[in-house]
Amino acid sequence: MPIHGISMSIFAKVTVYLSLFASLVLLTACGEQASDIPAEATLRPVKSVVVNGTGSSKQWHFPGKVRAFEKVDLSFQVSGQLTKLNVLSGQEVKAGDILAELDQRNFASDVKAAQAELDRASAEFNRMGPLLEKRLVSQSEFDQKRAQRDIAEARLEQAKKALDDTQLKAPFDGVIANRSVENFEDITAKQTIMSLQNPEALEVIINIPENRIVELDAERDFIQSFASTTADPSKQYALDLREYSTEVDPATQTYEAILNLIATEEDRIFSGMSVDVLLTSTRKQSDTFWLPASAVIADRENIETKIVWVLSQQAASEQYQVSKREITIGKLENENIEILTGINSGERIVTAGSHYLRNGDLVKLYQGEDF
Which CATH class is domain 60-69+201-281? Predict the structure, then answer.
């Protein structure tokens, strides 16, 4: 009996030790799991695209540059010394505002001299009328005095215009983009003084490679265009394809396309910004979708299986969780691949960084400087 009692006591102690060991393992695992959750600063950045439409959708990505649709380099039409420079770079102005002014003294004197010459020529011409009626002067003398008067009128108009041209005025409401001179400099005619642009009328410029222009031209009536900035890639700005060149640039072998940018006063987007332009064809060909080919990878567990990573945004956070999705693929056209099954409209799919992901990883959207 004692032996039996001792055995039971040892068995009980072993059971307790095993329970404690299991608890420690569990706590350690939980600690490791908690420590595996990355902080916001260390999240892996990924590029992504939102699946659009309810049918097949071809997509093209191009880097673009924002510029002002209304922009003009302002210059004087006459030469002279700059005496007034009323604006600074970045200053808002209204149409008709005087932005700069040249020394007007010589121009004002020219106006007075031209006015005096016109007065004299007009007086001589007026005296010729009665003399012509009395046949005291010939018709040719009368016509000569009239021509002198007309020339004097033209010279006065030129002098007045030159005086008016000593003032540089804003042709439309806008912002001074830059100022290239300082006050009291000697200015020559046609020399650029400053640039004026309308910040509310913006456009985006992209360059389309030769192998894409024919395909895009065929889809032009079905294309929807959007732009996003590196500062906020999740926000899309609507674009309207306005025109594109039909002659290739011999240096870049690309065709320039211009798209109107539709933005509001609240949107923080300015001329000179770099943007990512997404062109999407809405023409439905079949109940499939098109994604950039970089979005599709082979499953690690079965390389014959093709997958994409689907992003799910975490509540009240800029974090996204990735989940593996098995798909079936169709045709491959240039850099786009047809997805027959496996994804739905409105889902956000990873397009770059897929090879480094594992199921359940937390990531953030690409912000430009992270790659």
Answer: mainly beta
Q: How confident is the model at residue 81 (pLDDT cuts 50, 70, 90)?
A: very high
Alpha carbon distance 67, 71 (integer Å): 9
pLDDT for 211 equals 80
Query: What tokens does 175 get?
Result: 């912002």
Instruction: Give the pLDDT mean for 151-180.
Output: 95
pTM over 0.70: no
Each residue's pLDDT tens digit, 85-124 = 999 999 999 999 999 999 999 999 999 999 999 999 999 9
Where along the chain do its domains lie? 41-57+287-365, 60-69+201-281, 71-197
One of 3.90.1150.10, 2.40.420.20, 1.10.10.10, 2.60.120.10 is the CATH number of 41-57+287-365, namely 2.40.420.20
The DSSP bridge partners found for residue 227 are 237, 277
